[in-house]
Amino acid sequence: MIEKSLPKPFVREVARTTWYLTRRRDRMHMAQELSSIFIGGYALLLLWGVKALAAGPEAYQAFLTSLGSPLSLGLHWLVLAVTLFHTVSWFGVTPKAMPVQIGEAFLPGGIIVGGHYVVWIALSLFILFVAGVFNGG
Amino acid sequence: MARSNKPLVWSLFAAGGTVAAFVLPALVLITLMAGYGQVPASLSYEDMRTFAGGWLGKLVVFGVITLCLWHAAHRLRTALHGLGLRADGAVAVVGYGIAAAGTFLSVYYLLRI
Amino acid sequence: MSYKTIELAILRYRPETDQAPWFQDYRIPCEEDWVVLDAINYVKDHLDSTLSYRWSCHMAVCGSCGMMIDGEPRLSCKTFLRDLPEGKIRIEPLANFPIERDLVVILDDFMEKLQRVKPYIIRKEERALDQGEHLQTPAQLARFMQYTHCINCCCCYSACPQYALIPEFLGPAALALAHRYNLDSRDQGREEREEVVASNIGIWDCAFADACSLVCPKHVDPAGAIQQMKIGSTIAWYLDHLGLGRKKT
Questions:
Q1: Does the pTM exceed 0.80?
Q2: CATH of the domain at C64
Q3: Which domain covers residue C222, as residue numbers?
Q4: Which of B35, B61, B109 has its CB closest to that of A73?
Q5: Which residue of A130, C8, C107, C142 is 20 to 30 Å from C73, comparing CA positions?
Q6: How far is it, in rounded angstroms, from Cα B32 to Cα A45?
Q7: How many separate domains does chain B show?
């Protein structure tokens, strides 16, 4: 083993709190990570709804009414945008995590992603239907 | 080098992310409509009590809420580390603690329906 | 008559005289079909023979010439001048590695991590000579072929935010190499590699930023390799903890 004598290697600083701002791909990654705040927040809203449901009709009605506050409506639009962003980015990476090999070839990623969208649309329509959204009035 | 126990929280993160991707947009749309006064029919107190009264309904509600909470807890742990917060242990305890509290509460409330 | 004149800003560092790196500007004539490596070679040959940098094949197979070009980790032999925006081209050594001199970085950490994942066929029992060679179908080869394409250029380590923040992290190339052997039908060493791969500085330090795969000049997709290993290791972890896992030797 040849002993390397390195007089003075220079170690460059890493911008610990701002590194993700420089490149678009790093900003996108951080945005995806932070989307989880809104997913967790919405889950807490659902939890609050379950609490109200368990407490009784008055509490539940109060919960439904509070959904109409300007803050709630504003946050809802934001959460809707973020959950759609999450869905698109989550589906987008499925071919990397679950490659499907058929013989010597691999299923094109577009088919795997497309399949997710088909299931998502069908499931979303089903949820909306069961909720009574299409009953009109 | 010990094998990590991260698979436990990571599997919850992955399951939660998948559930969130598939069902949250529709659910957000529903509560958004309710906020505008267009409360979908099955969101009535009676229908929701019926839905959450059965074991399947309880399972669905429990699954959606808790998996999304654990997804957020784990992902935010990574995000905060990336934002420069190095106290990973403390962040993990707080984040998973909130998710655990939410898990316990969802069971508690659902059992009262 | 050259195509045009371009300007390069190259980060210099001479450990015997410099306290910190600094940019040196060069103006050079270039041809339309040049890559950044040609421009740097021109500097070395005609303007400044003190400039130090690594290169070899000039055809994107040896992995020697990785460097930061306008802030992105790229192979200088594969980056065409005509594809870069107008203006001064900023050339720096690969990020996340200590600078030895000028554009030469110290890759010892990477070399050590490559060895730690045991990148060779591991057999529980070696095949006897009279059994003949391992047979492998084209489909079995296709399963891991992509992950054999790594040329160890370290561009992925320069792009990886986790390697920047957590120096102990094994990193994309080492983990993709582990996956290459885990997927090889001749290999039986997945369990042995798990000790290091499934540790807290292995796959579990990866945050799936995907930067590695985006910069990889050979389209190895180390991010995909790591996510596949996360799924495999998670299933194995549950089986182990439910008592359904591998037999302990």
A1: yes
A2: 3.10.20.30
A3: 108-241
A4: B35
A5: C142
A6: 12
A7: 1
